[in-house]
Amino acid sequence: MLVFNLAVAAAKLILGYATGAVSIVSDGFHSLADSASNIIGLIGLRASRKPADADHPYGHRKFETLAAGGIFVFMLLAVMEIARSALSHLATPSPPVVTPLSFVVMLGTLAINVAVVRYEAGQGRRHNSELLLADAMHTQSDVYVTAGVLFALAGVRLGFPLLDPISALAVTVMIARTGFQIAREASGVLSDRMVIDEEEIRRVVMSVPEVLGCHHIRTRGPNDHVFLDLHVWLSPDSRLADAHFRSHVVKDRLMEQFPQIADAIIHIEPPPGER
User: Fold this and answer.
1) In the predicted model, what is the mean pLDDT of residues 254-270?
2) pTM here?
3) Taking a C-beta distance cutoff of 8 angstroms, is the pair 85, 108 a contact?
4) Pair type for strands 213-220 and 261-269
5) Beta carbons of 79 and 176 less than 8 angstroms apart
6) Where are the alpha helices (DSSP H) in the chain?
7) Contact call for residues 150 and 172 (beta carbons, < 8 A)
8) Cα separation of 58 and 229, whole Å?
9) Cα–Cα distance list, 48 to 24, 142, 247, 258 (Å)
10) Tens of pLDDT, residues 45-83
11) Does residue 129 sit in helix, strand or coil?
12) Within 13 Å and on the Cβ side, how many CA atoms surround 69?
């Protein structure tokens, strides 16, 4: 993916500077952000797969979330660059030179980006990877940008040069929206937002015989690597060995129902009022 994104970025930047089309140049910078996100993604993915160690007893999966946050930063930089260039060309209009080669290059890069999005999104859903899905969303925004550029080039060709910077400004909205979605997901993991609905967990716990109730249910982590802790109520007359066995039944049933749970910590206690 990195090689494809670099090739696409180079083609757009060369064409953009040669023709003076701000929309193409801006699209090239956005593709460079794609390449940067690929590099961050490779680093994040490798780090996130490392097993737990003494310094990181919960594992390294949040490195993947940090990498997704890095993608958002590069998207923000792309939006700023596109907006700056577009506003500059609106203030001092300079019609770009649009040739048939311009359409050939842009259609070719569009086809490459569509193929990359389909592949990455498919792999992301297959492996339930937030990083691959985030990068696919990022590349999807590049597809929108390129489509907008093609529209602008057609408008310039028909005698409407202002469509070049106007189109560049319009695509910043789409890129910013995608960046917001990525940032929201990454911030949810980093801020320990609830992952699994509390009532769904309670329903599974209460299906275990001899369990009288549960509370203090908490989940956190990425969607595919969840940590759970909760308090389970058992009869105060239960033997320690029996309570320990019952807690493992609860844990096994939860992890069977929710395979995304990496670990569950269960605290056994008597119901309120019987302590």
Assistant:
1) 93
2) 0.67
3) no
4) unpaired
5) yes
6) 2-19, 22-48, 62-91, 100-127, 130-157, 163-190, 198-205, 240-257
7) no
8) 13
9) 35, 26, 30, 21
10) 676 667 777 887 777 777 777 777 877 887 788 788 778
11) coil
12) 11
